[in-house]
Amino acid sequence: xxxxxxxxxxxxxxxxxxxxxxxxxxxxxxxxxxxxxxxxxxxxxxxxxxxxxxxxxxxxxxxxxxxxxxxxxxxxxxxxxxxxxxxxxxxxxxxxxxxxxxxxxxxxxxxxxxxxxxxxxxxxxxxxxxxxxxxxxxxxxxxxxxxxxxxxxxxxxxxxxxxxxxxxxxxxxxxxxxxxxxxxxxxxxxxxxxxxxxxxxxxxxxxxxxxxxxxxxxxxxxxxxxxxxxxxxxxxxxxxxxxxxxxxxxxxxxxxxx
Length: 258
What we know:
The chain is built from two helices and 15 strands. The chain is mainly beta. The chain folds into two domains: 31-113, no CATH class; 116-257, no CATH class. The strands form four sheets. Strands 1-8-7-6 form a four-stranded antiparallel sheet, with no helix packed on it. Strands 2-3-4-5 form a four-stranded antiparallel sheet, with no helix packed on it. A hairpin with a 2-residue loop joins β7 (88-95) and β8 (98-104).
């Protein structure tokens, strides 16, 4: 049973975490600064935000302008290469072998209009105990993405087993097996009060006996919940929980979910 003091402390800690999440989204170069996502190919492309012609040349992206030709080689799945663009910047990314440019504007409408992340009230009852079972070796799990045709490949360290309402459930946990774990999941609230593609739950490294804590009050939105210019993964089929996790962040897209 949770004491009043424990609940107050828990709530204060959660509010600090939630405030840090919101502060990160307020960064002028963060996810809310995105105003566009443009896919490139071998045909020259003109973008209003950046002077010059963009095109793909094999394994690289060329930007040809009056100042000459810039050559960029973004890494698959990694943060993009930055190119100055007005008060913001263009970010050249590579996803599933395709190249794209994302535009960041510190005066974007989404950033200006941001008032916070809607969330369920924190309840200690949604902090559940589980046990981590490591795979014999790290496996690669491939998931789809919110952008059709893209894939994400994740290193999966093992399974987390836990009990809720008398039933056992399990989740595939991403990581290298030597530290913290990450879980992408959906549940009965997905597409109703929470973002449909997935939420992410960070899990501290298992103890020596494999014990882990699942604090669903800190289930967080992926960037794609806030912008269409993100290329986030969707949850793997194994991580679709059959019950409603009424905890953590709610969808910022639906006013009814607030």
